[in-house]
Amino acid sequence: MSQKNSLSARTRYNLAVAKLFDQLQCRSRNWEQKAQELGTRLDQTQPLGVGLTLDDIDALVPAANISLKKIGKRHLDPGIGLPIVAWKTSSALASRRFEFAPPSGLPLNLTALLDFSTNQATWKFIYGGHTPTLKIGPRHEKIAIDWSAPAALYWRMSDLDDRDLLKVFLPTRFTDHAGLFFATPYSRKKIPIVFIHGLKSSPGTYKTMYNELVGEDWFRERYQVLFFSYPTGIAWPYNAAEFRRQLRRARDFAASKGDLSHWNQMVIVGHSMGGVISRASLVDPGKRFYEASYRTPLEELRVSQATRQAIRSTRLYQALAAPSRAIFMAAPHRGSPLADRKLVTWISAIIRLPKTLTIDLATATLEEITKAIQQGGQTRPPLTSIGTLSPTYRPYQALADSPYRAGLSYHSIIGDQGKGGGPHSSDGIVPYWSSHLHGAKSELIVPAGHSLISHPETIEEVRRILKLHLEPR
């Protein structure tokens, strides 16, 4: 068969599969009965991924029906079959949820096929990422795959892409969605890249960048993505402690799966406050962070043992060992002057912090933490995220004085709202003097405001750094 005839046959086949799949869908999820009504049957033997079968799925959605609004262009590999997305809700995943699965639900990237090699046409659902080609007679045909639709469906269904202001003012309401999540099931053969969002934000802030990266073969083959979500109303030292705990948990999980050589090549990407959280986790502070807020030795503080352990986790800790490269985007490494303005100070005062904070599994009362910091000489210790963005917040100097962990490479991407670059420029929230870092392997000034993640130059710079990271050292 000529290539032209083969393409024509594939087009007719795909169109027929799409029309029949529209009839296969039904609200009752009784796909087997529907398949029989069409004179077909379902192949229930092939797993869909992460131990799930078709019986576990709550919805099957044609990828073409999923909107990519505010995400970017659709990345589609042409081939045989109909790209679809299977959705499994988190409540249904409770008993079988894989470690570090995302909240809300799990999208599975599948391709629907009708197999006519037996007496009765059989529906098959294949994950093209694992099975990129299908043998049909003497030929190997590429599977059609939509790389954009699964994430687009997830952002639409997930709480990780909305309610950003509430996450600032009512952080306790969103602790169920806090944590570290794999975008796809873990692979020990891929390098992890961890995205950390900023204040008044969520992992969804990376959706455009993620879509652009996941649409490229080299990225899918060599990298796997994790997102860290946290209640942004809480002060960054406490969220940084939780970030370190979650990454240690993830490392133990990865170690249980085998070799850690790819895990140890991890890249961290932090935007805004996420950049401060990641930087604070990549330096060796010694006693600097503790002495920035406390004058009394830890064991002499008049607090409970749980509060003492929480303070140790936030102030006396060791740098993360795994990440070998970091990308800081619009990060206020020295704070932001906006945090000291009267209106912003008032806004910070109405943030409703929880009465207790669980830090590295130690539960400490807010009252005890406040009293402990007051023993260090601060009458009104800032405990909210906005309060700890003031350039006068003492841990910033400790952060500046603490050396990076040995072997770490880091890069800066900084926004400029038209002030010509240099020390007097600003992204509208964070001035250049706060984002700039000595010793960075590269620094790119992007003509954009503070929300620069989706800017084409930002995405291209991240792409460049990730390709550089793959080069032999």
CATH superfamily of the largest domain: Alpha/Beta hydrolase fold, catalytic domain
Question: What's the number of extended β-strand segments?
Answer: 18
What portion of residues belong to β-strands?
Answer: 15-25%
CATH class of the largest domain: Alpha Beta
Strand order of the largest sheet: 10-12-11-13-14-17-18
Average predicted local confidence, pLDDT: 82
Structural account:
With 473 residues, this protein is α/β, with parallel strands linked by helices. It folds into 2 domains: 3-151, no CATH class; 158-470, Rossmann fold (3-Layer(aba) Sandwich), CATH 3.40.50.1820. The protein contains 16 helices and 18 strands. A 7-stranded mixed sheet has the order 10-12-11-13-14-17-18, with helices on both faces. A hairpin with a 2-residue loop joins strand 15 and strand 16 (362-365).
